[in-house]
Amino acid sequence: MQINGTKALVTGANRGLGKAFAEGLLARGATTVYATARRPESIDIPGVVPLHLDITDPTSIEAAAAEVGDLDVLINNAGISTNAPLLGPSTDNIRREFDTNFWGTLNVTRAFAPRLGGGAILNVISALSWYAFAPASNGYAASKAAEWSLTNGIRLELADQKTQVTALALAIADTDMMAAYDIPKLPPREVVAIALDGLEAGKLEVIADSPTANVKASLSRDPALFYADISAALFG
Prior knowledge:
Strand order of the largest sheet: 3-2-1-4-5-6-7
Number of strands: 7
Helix content: 40-55%
Distance between the termini: 46 Å
Number of helices: 7
Radius of gyration: 17 Å
């Protein structure tokens, strides 16, 4: 998959990773980049085509797909985290996370996949697709685990039309979602450069940082060992 000369669309492109993806695609020679958001007037990226898209609204998705037409690259970046525990007083925020991170990603993919004619899809998942860290992130983690499974599934279902499906997994980037955490963070442009390098190299999964690589490697180990390490990090 080569980005130069392609027509691309990025969800959640008004800030953070989404904005960096739109800029990165342009820098690599994409001829048209649709930068989408619920409020397209909030997009301030020179050279893109701002487009309204609410990935939780099927009508909005259908309208965007009809306007864009054929497409080469779809970046499913839009996502939310509500700090919802699984056993809290309400499941409302967990449902919001699934509506965006799982159902929104799936519905956008369903709308645009027939328009790709090959091409590529990149889904932004998370290190939390593979482990649970703290109660306030458990709803988000569950939705991202579902998005990882979704990514693997659509890769199989789109194999006949030769669409490359890539997952980008990361732990900590310097975005609004991580603004409350005073820890070292990767700049969004660095994450995007790694992701687009992987996309162009044909990788099925791109691991953006060492914490995520460590988490992925732990999946082959006894989970008791991994969660003992998590407990030690949290509680000393």
